[in-house]
Design a protein that fits this description.
A: mainly alpha; 12 helices
């Protein structure tokens, strides 16, 4: 339970899709002129993330990970299918899932709620190429989310984080129209700078949970571990040589 | 530019400044900013996009007459995903540390809006050679912004360029550090990338008044 709560708050505030990793910036900038459309797109993103992240989690667990194919012939010792690593296929599998799901969602929404379909119309297919959606699945993979429940949680909460961000910037942009911004900065420029300032504000959430984001900081330490291991192996090789 | 006709040359030079994909068309910001804390990573990202966009544009342009328009998005995504897998595998094989730094952002080239945008807007309607030039031009425009942002962030943030110390040694207090300069660690934080791009836009639009929005 506590890990669910932790993941929930962490994905919304600490690892916010927009302010911490810049995902979905294109639609974030393009669709944030009015609050109403921003809310529509934000809701659609939450929905699609909540479906595709768990689906891709299943794909990753039972098809793509090293050893994930063990269920196929019952082997678990690296022989047969369990020795296979289809990880390099994950981009193509994930994007196919996302494109299919977006298409499906579009058809279902059109059938059952034409009014919602009309208000979202153009944005629904755009979601397929929103980096936040693919980014959600790729971060799910690289952060090694453990259970199906956590994957659902991660999808929903990072969607909520994105929703929050686009809602906030849309509200600010509606107000800033009446301010005296220097002419060359108007529109895009000031939006970038405001987003940067909001990002600085969101940095302060980093202290909310202990532990922090170890994933981001780990590249160097892992490389070092590999280095020391190879060095150990070399020393061992030297020793055995002398023994002979 | 003797090799290229005037119209072809324009395809390459236009996106570099007045029709820059990042600052004017507002495309491809997603994966661009997070990796600009180091100049090397920015450059590699630029090259990766150059490859994917150049080749992808040619492939899509060659297939433009046989792709049914209803499923074109899926076809485009598959082409990009295949090219990105090549880039990812090459990086993992020859520059493992770098591919760790770039982590998921190489994968995110697939959803980079520049690529889909150019496929939709140019490659589906033009011949392969023009599409190739258009792809190269737009990828260069993207890379230029990335390199500028990466240059300032790495120089001011850690005092190095390509990992080589250029401002002196902060521990032994040589170079500018002897004058009391200190690295501004804040430049390495994600929000600064946005603010630097904001400033680039400001400079660009002050120089060219036609670009100002109301």
């Amino acid at each position: 339970m506590i890990e669910h709560l932790e993941l929930f708050f962490k994905s919304i505030f600490v690892d916010n899709m927009v302010f911490a990793v810049f995902l979905g910036m294109c639609s974030y900038l393009a669709v944030s002129k009015k609050v109403a459309t921003a809310v529509g797109l934000g809701a659609a993103v939450i929905f699609v993330l909540a479906i595709t992240v768990p689906l891709n989690w299943l794909l990753d667990q039972y098809l793509l990970q090293p050893g994930a194919l063990a269920w196929l012939d019952g082997s678990s010792n690296g022989e047969g299918f369990s020795g296979m690593d289809l990880g390099f296929l994950s981009f193509i599998m994930f994007i196919a899932t996302i494109a299919t799901m977006v298409q499906l969602v579009e058809i279902v929404v059109e059938k059952f709620s034409p009014s919602l379909y009309n208000s979202l119309g153009i944005f629904l297919p755009l979601i397929a190429v929103n980096c936040a959606i693919l980014g959600g699945s790729l971060f799910m993979q690289s952060r090694e989310i453990e259970t199906f429940g956590l994957a659902v949680n991660y999808g929903v909460s990072s969607g909520i984080g994105w929703f929050l961000a686009i809602l906030a910037i849309a509200a600010i942009r509606e107000k800033i129209r009446y301010s005296n911004v220097p002419a060359p900065l108007r529109g895009l420029g000031i939006t970038f700078i405001i987003t940067g300032l909001m990002g600085i504000g969101f940095l302060s959430f980093g202290g909310m949970l202990t532990g922090g984001d170890e994933e981001e900081a780990s590249p160097e330490p892992t490389a070092q571990i590999e280095k020391t291991q190879t060095e150990d192996a070399k020393v061992l090789a030297e020793n055995t040589k002398i023994a002979e | 530019m003797g090799l290229l006709s005037k119209k072809d040359a324009k395809l390459i030079t236009d996106p570099l400044a007045d029709n820059n994909p990042i600052t004017i068309q507002v495309l491809g910001i997603c994966s661009a900013l997070a990796i600009t804390a180091e100049l090397k990573a920015s450059l590699v990202m630029g090259i990766a996009v150059l490859f994917v966009l150049g080749v992808g544009n040619v492939v899509i342009s060659l297939m433009r007459n046989i792709i049914p328009s209803k499923i074109r998005i899926i076809v485009q995504l598959i082409v990009v995903a295949a090219l990105v897998i090549i880039v990812d595998q090459v990086l993992k094989a020859f520059a493992y540390d770098l591919s760790k730094t770039l982590s998921v952002f190489i994968g995110l080239i697939i959803t980079n809006c520049i690529i889909m945008g150019r496929f939709e807007a140019f490659a589906l309607a033009n011949k392969p050679w023009q599409s190739f030039l258009d792809g190269i031009g737009n990828a260069l425009g993207y890379a230029v912004i990335l390199v500028i942002v990466g240059f300032f962030r790495e120089l001011l943030g850690s005092g190095t360029l390509f990992g080589i110390p250029v401002l002196g040694d902060p521990i032994e207090m040589t170079g500018v550090y002897a004058l009391g300069y200190e690295n501004n660690g804040f430049m390495l934080m994600p929000p600064m990338a946005l603010i630097i791009v904001g400033l680039i836009i400001w400079v660009q639009r002050s120089r060219n008044k036609d670009l100002i929005e109301d």
